[in-house]
Design goal:
This protein is an alpha+beta fold. Helix content is 27%, strand content 20%. The chain folds into two domains: 323 residues, Spore Coat Polysaccharide Biosynthesis Protein SpsA, Chain A, CATH 3.90.550.10; 126 residues, Trefoil (Acidic Fibroblast Growth Factor, subunit A), CATH 2.80.10.
Length: 617
């Protein structure tokens, strides 16, 4: 009997053990479709991330970091602290730089995949019936509804997609610096995730967020839990330039990458830029900036044939590269594009070179003009600006700023721009003041330090910049008595794309960008376009009649091309026939002169000048 009972016990025990083993094997063999979701709750619980209460009352304690001192030298800090992957609250100042590095492996950090995105974005959710454009001047509802790691189209050209880039082990890593002020949480997080998600891990040394005194300190502080993210917070509003310098001074990589806080990096965006800067530290490189719609956040590819430029009003504009350069680039469209100016929001630069050439002008305020100043400085002081066609980063372009400027946006922009003009443009600044005469009334502060920098770096004059970097920006010839656009109300004399053998020219809405609307009147009476084309009447002068149309012809010093401008009446009179330029019949013709008719009144507007600006040089 005992032996029989013992046998039954063995059988029962074997079945129990076998069943348990089978259950364990089956459970272990089940494929987890998303381990990130399975682990997220555990990580949130361990680290205190997410919307769950950290304190018993369910509220989050706000932590703020005092501002850096004015010279942005982190070696002299006494009370400065970083949160997250940066400076801890328990560090010693003597070992400041080492602690910035060691805290990157802090146990309270998580991979971006496990960050509680839904909870983070929910803290900034729109209220019921709130204007979806009111806070950020873009559709926050659309932004909040889109995942931070959404798929976006690969907008690179075919040759860029085929090209293989050097191994990550052969390239230097970069510190990515993102400054923000009251940015939508969803847009800011999407910027960070796109950097981490679409970059080789070993090439992102750190992401430094500089919170320029946002209303909600937790918007930045909460992101410090993401691996590689470090957060600095200003104790007062400093603006883009000083905030970026703060981030650059705190960076511990040899390469700096500046991004705006509402961007999305595209596939292989980083390697093409790193290659160029690693080859030559004097290069300052930018990606092609794709468009993220402010209306619905659609991602739209931009042309690969654009570069940055400006008119004499010193306002940045995109312009197509020349037909000749486009033809050359057909052989290798992956080659960099030299650019006279950068947009300023997105670029990469060697840190030592950034420091050497003077960082940013620290007396510029908030935003505006800094891209102009750094562009002039880089080119005139021995560097180069390049747009890298194989690097693509999307950017939300807004119609107006969502934040205020102390003293007004126009005043701040004019002050910053005037500082750049006074330091870098030499005698050519007079053309800026001709285009924007009100700028002469704006105080621009002390520029002696920047002038000393220019002298110590042995920078080239602005004349060299115009001749070698931006010869397309035309300056009035010494023989010109008038220069710019010929305007009649909101319409300007325009070539309409005609050449020296083309049809009649006419009027088009004034755009202030030169090009087809750029003219000059020489001392000897020739109305010129592009230097060698002149405004001409048809046929023999003796046979010219009222109602004849106007054409462009190669300048030949004939009577068909001689004019005089009558400033008292604003008329342009053809000398040989005594007829005047007129628009009475809806097209450009010559008619019997009448000083009282509006259709014969013309004003010369300097390139880039607004309608309220000075009409002639």
């Amino acid at each position: 009997m005992r032996r029989r009972n013992f046998r039954y016990l063995l059988i029962i025990g074997g079945v129990w053990i076998g069943g348990g083993l089978l259950f364990y094997i089956n459970k272990g063999s089940e494929k987890d479709p998303n381990p990130a979701l399975r682990l997220k709750d555990e990580i949130i619980a361990e680290t205190g991330l997410g919307v769950g209460p950290i304190e018993s009352n369910g509220s989050l304690k706000r932590r703020e970091s005092p501002d850096f001192d004015d010279n942005n030298d982190i070696s002299g800090l006494e009370d400065e602290k970083m949160v997250g992957g940066g400076l801890r609250r328990d560090i010693s100042i003597e070992n400041l730089n080492n602690d910035i590095i060691t805290t990157k492996s802090s146990s309270n950090e998580v991979d971006w995949k496990y960050f509680d995105e839904r909870g983070y974005v929910a803290k900034d959710a729109l209220k019921e019936n709130e204007d979806i454009y009111g806070r950020n001047q873009f559709n926050q509802k659309a932004s909040d509804s889109i995942a931070s790691n959404r798929d976006i189209p690969d907008t690179r050209g075919g040759e860029c997609r085929k090209r293989e880039w050097p191994s990550s082990s052969t390239l230097p890593p970069t510190s990515v610096i993102i400054t923000f002020h009251n940015e939508a949480r969803s847009a800011l997080l999407r910027t960070i995730v796109s950097v981490l998600n679409r970059s080789p891990d070993e090439l992102i040394h750190e992401i430094i967020l500089v919170d320029d005194f946002s209303d909600d300190a937790d918007a930045g502080h909460d992101l410090a839990k993401i691996n590689k993210v470090k957060v600095l917070r200003n104790s007062k509003r400093e603006g883009l330039m000083r905030s970026r310098v703060k981030g650059a001074d705190a960076a511990t990589s040899s390469i700096l990458t500046f991004l705006d806080s509402h961007c999305e990096c595209n596939k292989n965006w980083l390697e093409p830029m790193l290659v160029r800067v690693a080859e030559d530290p004097h290069r300052v490189v930018c990606p092609i900036i794709d468009v993220i719609s402010m209306e619905n956040f659609d991602y739209i590819g931009a042309s690969a044939d654009l570069r940055g430029g400006f008119d004499w009003n010193l306002v940045f504009k995109w312009e197509y590269i020349s037909k000749e350069e486009r033809a050359l680039r057909k052989n290798d469209p992956t080659q960099p594009i030299k650019s006279p100016m950068i947009a300023g929001g997105l670029f990469m630069i060697d840190k030592a070179y950034f420091n050497k050439i003077g960082k940013y002008d620290m007396l510029m305020d908030i935003w505006g003009g800094e891209n102009l100043e750094i562009s002039f400085r880089v080119w005139q002081c021995g560097g180069e600006l390049e747009i890298i066609p194989c690097s693509r980063v999307g950017h939300v372009f807004r119609k107006k700023h969502p934040y205020t400027f102390p003293g007004g946006a126009g005043h701040v922009f004019a002050r910053n721009t005037r500082r750049a003009a006074e330091v870098w443009m030499d005698e050519y600044k007079k053309y800026y003041y001709s285009a924007v005469p009100l700028a002469k009334t704006i105080p621009f502060g002390n520029i002696q330090e920047r002038l000393n920098l220019k002298k110590n770096l042995h920078c080239k004059p602005f004349k060299w910049y115009l001749e070698n970097v931006y010869p397309e920006l035309k300056t009035p010839h010494h023989d010109d008595v008038q220069f710019g656009a010929m305007a009649q109300g909101h319409y300007c004399l325009d070539t309409l794309g005609q050449s020296e053998r083309g049809g009649p020219i006419g009027l088009y809405t004034c755009h202030g960008s030169g090009g087809n609307q750029e003219w000059s009147l020489s001392k000897d009476g020739y109305v010129k376009h592009a230097g060698d084309l002149c405004l001409s009447v048809p046929g023999e002068v003796e046979e010219l009649t009222a109602g004849s149309s106007l054409h462009l012809r190669l300048c030949n010093k004939s009577m068909q091309q001689q004019w005089r401008y009558l400033p008292e009446s604003g008329q342009l009179q053809h000398l040989g026939s005594a007829l005047c330029l007129d628009t009475a019949i809806g097209q450009l013709t010559v008619q019997t002169c009448n000083p009282h008719t509006y259709t014969q009144k013309w004003k010369w507007k300097f390139p880039g000048a607004s309608s309220a600006s000075q009409d002639s040089v």
